[in-house]
Queue: 4 jobs
Job 1
Amino acid sequence: MTHTVLTVTIIIFILIYLLTVLLSATKAVPMSLAALSGALMTAWFGVQFEIFKSYEDMFGLVENSIPILSLIIGTMIVVEVAEKSGLFRFGALYAVKLSKGNPGRLFVSICVISAIVSMFLSDPTAMLLMAAATVTISKLLNYDPVPYFLSATIMINLGGTSTLIGSSTNMAIGIASGTSFASFISYLTLGEIALWVLTIVALYMFFKSRLGEKKTLPEYNPWQSVENKKLFYRSIFTLFLLIILFIALENLPFIGRAPEVIALGCAIIALVLSGLDPAEIFKGIDWETVFFIAGFMFVVGGLEKTGVLIQISNQFIQLVGSSPLNATLLTLWFSGFASAILSNVAIALTFIPIVSGASGLNSPSVWSALVLGTNLGGATTPLSGSVVIMAIGALKREGISMSFGEFTKIGLITSVLQLGFSSLYLIWRFSLLGG
């Protein structure tokens, strides 16, 4: 292959990547359609310019996505069954009941339950659940819904950062880096707890004057929201089984340290024990994310075949030198701000081969920085992700309009605060100043 052809090929594949990202970011077409269209162009041009040595070589990119997609789909099925049982709505209602009408306590309860719910549900699903709960409570107590809505949105984005199954980006990074469920927790959980506290305090100080006065909550029993207690308890069992098996994964050699096997196995158990129609469960799966990841991984894989990402990895190494500290902080802040503008899933999938190719810097601290950056940047502006768009849309349906600048003000404050704290946490957790 001549130098000229190689240059043209690289340009074409970069343009395919940029077009896919642009279409996804602008929502000109659904994200899944943008990624699948990009994958189709990658396949066609890859064959024409002999980037793929054979069709088997091309379909090898598809095989690479199977573990990630299996983990995501399996986890989504388990969680969807739990959602159908009313488990998460029960938790939300119970947290509100514990507030006893105290606006400060109610605010903290909504923030905490939003973060906890998002550890298991996809962000859009968690947003729908918390939006419904927040609207109901706001109307009953005649509170301004904006502080509760926006704080729930930011906490939903933050929740689940420290677990392998907390978000699609975590799953992709975890599979690619070989980081186990237990290692994810050991690296990031302490930091996430601190981030929860820090973020809730910042949000409370920002919205304190708008939370309302203490009022008496109407009498209600959270258990009334649970229609099928047998399904409720079985869902709890399956969810705990999933988590326990993930934690014990390193001591289960017969599974071969493959979290996707556990996820799919627990998904089957959940479907069998629930007695629900699998077709109904499958309707609730976030297929948009699944197909976006499948298509975008193919696009990134094609770009990687051209050698561009290896060149970027080499530039990355030259930029940071041999310093894990520089590599960690650069990854954290760049991925954080990039995720404020573009899909954080796209940023994660793009960074994975870059970090993997950076010999000597492929370390837990850099992977942890990528997890934090792609998660924390997701609620900075109304362009950051679907959960923010849904929150603003829910407010609009209630007759409350919110400008781009109004959300960005609080989103930028919390994101910079979170990224700043994360920098200090990563330095401490991985002893990056220890020489």
Note: The two ends are 45 Å apart (CA to CA).
Job 2
Amino acid sequence: MAELILKDKLKKAGITDVRVKSAGLMAENGEKMSKNSASALKSVGIKPYAFRSRRLTADILRKTDMVICMTEEHKKRLYGIDYAYTVNELTGIGNVPDPYGGDLELYMKTMKGIDAACEIILKKIMKAKGV
């Protein structure tokens, strides 16, 4: 959800030179987005298109300028990656727990947390770009 929400915000702000890709520590490559993730995104007008999951790899990390982790635990698993930050470090809103396996209500709550975090991140990007 985070990739699509941030991409949507960047597009609406007219920022075209920031690339956003999500990858999970435990994700299986090529899995479809969960039904509840897709429903949560559709409820705010974001089309989940043909999104497919991908596992975080060393190659992805080599091509990345910044990694944003949803929780402190995720960041700890990336020990030694000095360009990894938690959502909380960047936004002050706390961790964003993974709703995997939860009901639609949990996905909606998580989506709202991601949306709030992405809004703050967008403002920081715009400030850095002088927009």
Note: The longest helix spans residues 104-129.
Job 3
Amino acid sequence: MLTIYLDEHAKKPLYMQLYDHVRQAIIEGRVEAHEKLPSKRRLAAHLKVSTLTVEQAYQQLIVEGYVYAIEKKGYFVEPYIAPEIKPVRRLKTHHEARVSAPAPTLAFKTNVVDTDLFPNQTWAKLAREVLSENHHEMLNVTHPQGLPLLREEIARHLARYRGIDADPARIIIGSGSESLLAMIVQIIGRRSHYAMEDPGYPKIHDLLKGNDVKLTLIPLDESGLRLDALMQANADVVHITPSHQFPSGIVMPIKRRNELLNWSYLEPQRHIIEDDYDSEFRFQGKPIPALLGLDEQDKVIYMNTFTKSLAPSFRISYLVLPAHLMPRYREVSVYHSCSVPNFEQYILYKFMKGSYFERHISRMRKAYKFKLDLIISAFQPAVDAGEIRIMGADAGLHFTIKDLRGFDERTLVDRAAEEGVQVTGMSRYRHRSEKVGSDHATLVIGYSGLSTKALEQGLEALSKAWYLTRSDKA
């Protein structure tokens, strides 16, 4: 007879307490295989519980394979086979690696923004309006290219600020630039020969390689992507960031832009993917026109995102397709739907329609210009002393620092980390293994995600880590 103590006041039901006891007895071998268990009535009487409690426990044991029943004979123990336990070498996860080596407290990253600048109150007000006024439309399926009203606002924005006459019918909205680039590969085809800048976006490189396309890496010169190398590669499609090359910060001059367009005009299958990811932020001089605004033969596929202007987690991007690629897009779109929720699209539509977006960009531009001036002022003595050179700071939300004293990149990165500051070297964005370009160490500095106080602390730490000349006020 099984004798156990069942606690009527415990949170666990009585039948589960009985189940646990019998199960453990079987696992530990205290009852043998095929041994008959007490009948429901006898065990219930012995434990002073209802027969229903015993029946529920037995049924759970039967379901899990610990017990079997024979009609009119009773309940019996199934033979128990213990699992073979083999020693497993436990590998460290990425999370454990981060715990053992904590990241620096100050990070000059390129993929973050100042969240204090996000228009929370306005966004919340517009969200309430959408829930109240667009309830039915928000819950229904929208056009696979995205909300028509939002596409019209994007077209107006492009015409006003980028000199692009974009037909809303050729604008496609998607969740992140990566998903849209994958769609472009589907439209153009994997048999085409692709090219991209080197150094360049690691995600773009990985996505193109992941789509199993032929990919050639094109080096840069002082004007951006080298045209001679592109011609030699004999590529069909090239992905570029002409308004503020990532990560070098080079702004492609009009001459090189026209040369690139002429390259695309030479062959019917050639296209240029223009990634205009942070074109809203230019701090000196007039904005240089987008390639699409200069294109006379419909060869440019234009891409942009709201990642920099709103927030990285706000994954709304869009592209403008050439007219001759729209039929192929419609073939692809049969098994695609818009990947951005209607709710977010309606809010963004109202945000742009009500001129909130323009005011928001103006506010961000002023805030980031203040931070940039702070950085330039802090580093100016080192620039004047010929220790470093700052490049690519006139546009976008990152720039590069080139060390002119002969330090290697790894040393500068490590010294910054010792002072609690994270910076990234240019080599992180190179995809070719061979040594390219100047021997001078180059660091990529993103400043948009740091508060003014954190920025000042980071600049002081970098000056100390790199032994830079500082002003008397520092």
Note: The domain at 106-113+360-465 is CATH 3.90.1150.10 (Aspartate Aminotransferase, domain 1).
Job 4
Amino acid sequence: MREGKHGVRSTKQAIAIGLSKARRAGVKLPPPAPGRTSPDTRKRAIRDSARGRASRQWKPAKRRSRATLRALKREGHRAVSREALARQARSAARRRRAA
């Protein structure tokens, strides 16, 4: 999002996209624990991790990629500003217990 390739609607969405991209790139990120997110989200995280371990066997369709990129570029970019990310981090920290 920061690179300007595409925008997001919320800061939470930006973080989720970042985690997904990292998993697909091969970063060893565990899926969320059962009960913390919806089963669908957990399943998607497991699938992303598997994709990060597998070798690329297909090439994305150029026309569809371009169409998707154009649509995503029209999304907002304020959700990934330093203030927005800091606000999200603070609210998430408030929800966690003091360690």
Note: The chain has a mean pLDDT of 89.
